[in-house]
Every structure is written in C-alpha cells, then in structure tokens.
Task: inverse folding
C-alpha cells in the first residue's frame, strides 16, 4: 500500500458512531470467489440497489446493505475510501456500474479513488476508471460545518464563507496526503 494514501477517520455525528460502536455489518470481499459467494446470497431486489462500501486500511473492499452506516461497515475504524456502489453482470461477469465517494460519515476526498480501484482489481471486478459520481467535501474554516461542494462553487452553505480548494474535512489530517 502506498504511503501517500490518506486513512480517513469517522467525522460524522457522534450519536451515530456511539450507536453502532464496533458493529460489523459488512462482508469482506478479497477475491472473485468472495464476491460470487456474496452476490449469490443477495436477492434480486437487493442487487438492484446500490450498496454501502468501505475500503479498510488493509485495502479490502467491505460491502453492506445501502441502509448501513459506513462507520458500521468499517467496524468503527479508519478507511481508505467509502461510498456507494452498484453492480451488474456483463457477459456473465460481474462488474461495477456505478461507484461514488458519497459518505457523509467519512467525507473521503475524490483522490481516494486509487484505493477503490485497487480493491476492485483484487476482487477481479471490472470497474470504471474513476468515481462515476464524485463528491467534493470541505469543512468550512469559519463555522466548521461539513459541506458538499456543488458545481465547483466553493462557498459554505451555512455561513457563506469561502471554502478551501484542498480537502480539509478532518482537522487532524490537515491537507496532507499522509496516513
């Protein structure tokens, strides 16, 4: 694993992490066989919906039902990325058809994509070359609220202050790319 990868800690509401504590609702997907076993256990209706995912600091993809909290999927730990993911079959082979970094609990930067791609490659899942829906998260330096930047408009929706161009959601990680 590259040392330039950021390990995101949970930055969402404290009541959520307190409620889930270290509950693990996720299934680790290390190989194509793991994914095939997991997919077989899902209903058709479940497979029509996106799933919650995290990439643990061990580089392993973990999947949970969409209604799951990312922090629960990660057993309360740090992640290399988090978001939502959906799958389809193409010519009898499973593939990722959509994937985002939409996780307001971890607020991972779009630069977390390489960790996702590596975990999907490890599980032998075809995938896009990038987040199909990339979410830009920033923390307002004035009011400290977390924001989703829309249409490149780097202005806080809570206090109208300018938001930084670089990822800054976790003040303990700052703007560095280190773990």
Result:
């Amino acid at each position: 694993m590259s040392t330039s990868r950021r390990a995101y800690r949970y930055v969402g509401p404290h009541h959520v992490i307190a409620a889930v504590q270290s509950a693990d609702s996720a299934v680790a997907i290390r190989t194509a066989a793991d994914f095939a076993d997991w997919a077989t256990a899902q209903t058709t209706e479940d497979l029509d919906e996106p799933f919650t995912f995290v990439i643990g600091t061990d580089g392993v993809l973990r999947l949970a039902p969409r209604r799951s909290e990312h922090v629960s999927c990660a057993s309360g730990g740090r992640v290399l990325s988090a978001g939502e993911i959906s799958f389809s079959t193409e010519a009898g082979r499973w593939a990722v058809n959509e994937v985002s970094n939409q996780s307001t609990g971890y607020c991972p930067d779009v630069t977390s994509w390489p960790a996702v791609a590596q975990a999907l490659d490890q599980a032998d899942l075809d995938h896009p070359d990038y987040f199909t829906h990339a979410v830009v998260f920033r923390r307002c330096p004035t009011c400290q609220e977390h924001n989703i930047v829309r249409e490149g408009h780097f202005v806080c929706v809570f206090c109208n202050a300018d938001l930084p161009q670089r990822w800054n959601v976790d003040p303990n990680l700052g703007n560095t790319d280190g773990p």
Notes: The CA atoms of residues 6 and 179 lie 5 Å apart.
